[in-house]
Amino acid sequence: MLLEVKNLSVCYATAMLLNDLSLGVEEGELVSLVGPNGAGKSTLLRTISGLVRWEKAAMRGARAGDITIEGTVHFAGERIDKLAAHEIVRRGLIHCPERSKPFPEMSVTDNLKAGGYLCNDRGEVQRRLETVYQLFPVLRERGNQISGTLSGGERQMLAIGRALMEQPKLLCIDEPSTGLAAKLKDELFARIRQIRNSGIAVLLVEQDVGAAFQLASRNYILSHGRVIAEGTSEELLKDETIRRTYLGL
Q1: What is the sign of the dihedral through the CA atoms of 108, 111, 116 and 122?
Q2: C-alpha to C-alpha distance for 130 and 140, rounded to whole angstroms
Q3: Backbone angles phi, psi at 164, to 5 degrees
């Protein structure tokens, strides 16, 4: 198991955002995470990638006690839930947040290079750039363009491309299709499929359940911070209660 989350709970003051949650992702697998708004999907990705613990550490004095985290996260056989966010990145677990924003005053190419900041080999950085450009040709075309002037779809491609510059073993993508037109969504999902086919595991949070289920080999459905169902798309869609209550289908 590449990623193994066991009995994970996250509480902000009196609000329980994740409640004894367990899930896993195998190497090279694409797993989707779906459920209603407020189910805890984004909180799960932020906790896995160390951002919630960073937020807790940034608080001062008694306020740090407002956030409690329990449970374990293992990645590639190593326990990582006590590590700083940048150390988790070094191990190959990369988080692409919802509505991830580029550095607006920098060019597209410089934004991508910033994504590979841990690599000191210029030749290797250039090779990674070429890989990203092959996946997203529009980013090559926009290379010298200031990133703040990109369209919404282009910004999302840049966000994923920047994440790929660290050569992830697992890429956690949060709501990549938010606000995109249908044609752009289809193109983006096709690129995410290519990423999975290249051998990179993907944990995908997505509101478009139909698209997520077409992409994923397995799916988890969250509600109120808990996993309430797990299975293949075919298995989950056979359950009428899950279809109507949690998937809106």
Answers
A1: positive
A2: 9
A3: -70, -20
DSSP state of 38: T
Least confident segment among 26-30, 44-48, 128-132, 149-153: 149-153
Q: What is the pLDDT of residues 103-143, one digit of tens each?
A: 889 999 999 999 988 888 999 999 999 999 999 999 999 99
Domains, the chain: 3-245 (3.40.50.300)
Structure-block tokens of residue 199: 């051998």
Residue 62, pLDDT score: 56
- Specify the 3-state DSSP secondary structure of 35: coil
- 177 burial type by CB count under 10 A (0-12 exposed, 13-18 middle, 19+ buried): buried
**234 Cβ contact partners less than 8 Å away, ≥ 6 residues apart:** none
> DSSP letter string over 8-27?
EEEEETTEEEEEEEEEEE-T
157 vs 176: CA distance, rounded Å: 9
Place of tokens 């990582």: 80
Rounded Cα gap, residues 177 and 181, in angstroms: 8
Closest CA to 32 of 243, 249, 236: 236
Three-state SS annotation for 87-155: HHHHCCEEEECCCCCCCCCCEHHHHHHHHCCCCCCHHHHHHHHHHHHHHCHHHHHCCCCEHHHCCHHHH
- In a 3-state reduction of DSSP, which class is residue 77? coil
**Spatial contact of 177 and 190, defined as CB atoms under 8 Å apart:** no
Question: Distance between CA 136 and CA 30 in Å, rounded?
Answer: 20
Question: What's this model's pTM, rounded to 2 decimal places?
Answer: 0.93
